[in-house]
C-alpha cells in the first residue's frame, strides 16, 4: 500500500536522526518563549532587531486595521493594491536606493517570481551551491540551464560563465547564507556579471535591516551602487523588519517586467494592508536606531569569544546567525535537547538543510537579547562541550 511506503520512509527518517518536530509557541515572538508550559530563552527566531513585538509596530498595525480593514480582498493587479502597499513600495525603493520596488507575500514567493520571469529555456543560471531552497526551486521552475559553483568560488564561476553560450545569463546568490552566516563576495560577483553580460540576483533575507549604513543591507555594507541595472535585489520583511512579506527592488524596467510576468505576484492575493502599515513604521525604526545593530554585533562577539575554546567549530560569521558545528545528527539533537532541558531553545539543523556531516546548532541572536542571556547560553554550551 502506498501509505505503508510512507510509514517505512518516515522510519528511515527517524533512524537517520532527521525527523523534524514542530513546537507550538505560547508567547509573542521574542527572547522569552513558552513551549508546552515550559519557559525558555529562545535563540531560534530571525527577529534580529527585536521588532516583531515592538509597541510602535503594534500601534501602527492596529491603526492600519481600523483604517483599512484586515484583508486586501484581491491580487494587486485586480483590486488588492491599496494606498499602504503603494506607500511601502515607494519607501522601500527610497530606503534601498533602487528606482522601484515590488511587494510580495513571502521571500520564497519573491524568488519564485524573479528567476522564471527573467530566464527560461536557452538561458543559463549560475548559482552558489549553498543558496536557499527558494532560489534552487526558482531555477528549476525557470527551465533554464542550471550551473552551480562551489560556495563563494569566483574562479569556478568565471570558468562556467566563460564557457556558456546561453542567450541570457543570471547569477543568483544569497547575500548572507542562512545556515553559515557568512557573506557572499558581492563585489566580485557584480564584476563578473559586468564582464559576462549577466544579471545578478541577490537574496538579502538575512542582511536587510542588519548590515550596512542605517541597516540598508548587504549592498550598502559593500558600498555597491544600487543604480546598476544588472542588480535585482530581494529583501524579506519577516526577519529584521519584524512583520511578514518580502520585496524585490531593481530598475524601473525590471520591476515593470516582473509586474507583468511574475506568476507568484500576479496570481496571489495582496498582503493585509495592516501589515504594510506596520512595515512603514518598521522602516523608520530600522533607519533611525543604530543602537540595536550595535548591540547585536556586541552579542555576537560575546558568544564567539565564549565558545572559542570549546571542541565545537564556529563558522566565520559576522552576522546574527552563529552556527556551532556539532557534526553528527544524533549528537546535535542530543545537545539541543540538553539545552532545552536547561531552559534554552536552540534548533538543531541537519541534512538536507546543511551538508552531511555538518549538523549544527544554529544560534540566532536578536537585539532583544541581553548580555546576561547570552552569557547563560555560553555557560551551558561550555558545560555540554
Description:
With 385 residues, the chain is an alpha/beta fold. It has helices spanning 2-15, 55-68, 83-96, 107-118, 133-142, 154-163, 186-195, 218-221, 252-261, 263-266, 273-288, 290-307, 329-341, 371-384; strands spanning 32-35, 38-42, 100-104, 124-128, 145-149, 169-174, 198-203, 231-236, 246-250, 313-314, 321-327, 344-345, 348-349, 359-364. A seven-stranded mixed β-sheet has the order 3-9-8-7-6-4-5, sandwiched between helices.
Write the layout of secondary structure elements.
Layout: H1 2-15, E1 32-35, E2 38-42, H2 55-68, H3 83-96, E3 100-104, H4 107-118, E4 124-128, H5 133-142, E5 145-149, H6 154-163, E6 169-174, H7 186-195, E7 198-203, H8 218-221, E8 231-236, E9 246-250, H9 252-261, H10 263-266, H11 273-288, H12 290-307, E10 313-314, E11 321-327, H13 329-341, E12 344-345, E13 348-349, E14 359-364, H14 371-384
Parallel strand pairs: 2-12, 4-5, 4-6, 6-7, 7-8
Antiparallel strand pairs: 1-2, 3-9, 8-9, 10-11, 11-14, 13-14
Helix pairs in contact: 2-11, 3-11, 4-5, 12-14
Short description:
The protein is an alpha/beta fold. It is built from 14 helices and 14 strands. It is globular.
SS class: alpha/beta
Query: Which parts are unreliable, with pLDDT below 50 for 5 consecutive residues or more?
Result: none
CATH architecture of the largest domain: 3-Layer(aba) Sandwich
Tell me the strand percentage band: 15-25%
Mean pLDDT across the residues is 96
As a whole number of angstroms, the C-alpha radius of gyration is: 21 Å
CATH top level of the largest domain is: Alpha Beta
- State the separation between the terminal residues, measured CA to CA: 45 Å
For the report, how would you describe the main beta sheet? 7 strands, mixed
Give the CA-based shape: globular
Number of domains: 2
